[in-house]
Amino acid sequence: MTGFVDAFTVLAVGSGAIFFLAGTLGLLRFPDTLSRLHALSKADNLGLGLIVIGLLPHATSVSAGLKLACVWLLAQLSAATASQLIAGVARNRRPRA
Amino acid sequence: MSSISNPATLFGLCGAALVGIGLFTVIVHPGLLRRIVGFNILGAGIFLIFGAVARRGAGAGFEGDPVPQAMVITGIVVAFSATALAVAMLQRLFDLTGRATLEPPAPEGRPGSET
Amino acid sequence: MNALLDVVLVAGLLALALHVARARDDQGAIVGFIAFGFLLGLGWVRLASIDVALTEAAIGGGVTGLLLLRVEAHTRDSSAPDRTARPITIAAAAVLCIAVTAGLAFVILNLPSPPPTQAPAAAAALDATGLENPVTAVLLAYRALDTLLEKVVLILALVGVWSLAPDHLWGGAPELRPAVVPEPLSYLARVLPPFGVLIAVYMFWVGADAPGGTFQAGTILAAMWLLVMLAGLRAAPDTRRVTLRLLLIVGPAVFLAVGFLGFAMAGGFLAYPAGAAKPIILGIEAALTLSIAVTLGMLVSGPSKRAPTS
After folding, report:
1. Do C108 and B21 touch (CB under 8 A)?
2. Which end of chain A is more exposed for a tag (fewer CB within 10 A), N or C?
């Protein structure tokens, strides 16, 4: 049983890390602001989500698990807002660029 | 001599380097705002050295000596209040002179650069 | 594996510090500094100082970053191209800074072994305070005088900042709201504060026994208030408002009153009577948290920009 849980954690955290890696590569390599934002929000949403899901079975108490979930939700909220704000600035600037 | 691979020593050395970088920015950079940021980097370096000392002082079931840790927390807050005051003075200087530096204006200085 | 993480963190910190020193524009340098603050928070976790990590991320990266960005926007396009320092000055400064760094590195490599520590003393007295977080015990019991004076420093800094407003604006309100508030920002400012306040209360409450405490809680409260002011949902208060000024001093005042009561109850300034230390400390912390939140919020907002109303 423990082995199964550990394998699940490794799988989920591992794929989360891959999403972060891909998101970082996209941030560095994509040509314009909007596609870079796209790469970044994918990494934030899916990568962090997978890592949190992977860690949940190891939470020692219900409240620790809830805190992990809160971290994910709050990061989602702030990432979504920041992306919207940056995208808004990028759109306003486009006619000039 | 303690081993570099020990996190306390490694972050202590990092703190020493940050002090140097911050001090260099404070001395050399002409812009006052950048000097304030450099001052904060300098402070961060000193706090890290405190952190290294605290980590080495682990004992009695604690992972670090709580006294330097508490001093760093106090230090971060005091550094912030100093930064806020410095930044407010910079803003006032800019409102009065239109410049954000203490360097004398270049010879062909723009009008408005004098009070 | 952990050593690798440490090396990556240190390399990132040094790279960001060099970026701050060399970036062409101030805005880029400040963004680098904010990233530096968050990375430094991770460094503090690696040094097993979670309390410091929380403070660094909240104040060092977050609130300081907001303050610097606000002033950068205010003073942008300020002057003719700055004269850079003369090569001889740069060389002399470089030699001096390398000497300072080398000296500090020498000291760190030759720190006394076994290291001197106050940890056993802090542990021995912990039971008497009723607390379990030794850092909180140092801040509010063993070295409470330092913390009291630090609160006074915060207020003095705020007095200094307010005094920098032009005479006709004295007593007026600072202005944080941008000309146009983007829709997502005002959405965030409506959704986030309830959670933020909850997290701040939690931070304050667990601070007695686990990492957290007044500074961290106060900073989160200040951040929520700043968010609301930035989005223009509530205007910043006039700096001459009596309620504002009472909130600013309630923390230090309660602290000072407890300090003097210590003479009567326990035979010394800031001495707590045996057995009642924990409720007294929590009371002081509650008042301090409010004062810290209001002080930090007003410090970031800066001098007043509008003439006082009424």
Report:
1. no
2. N
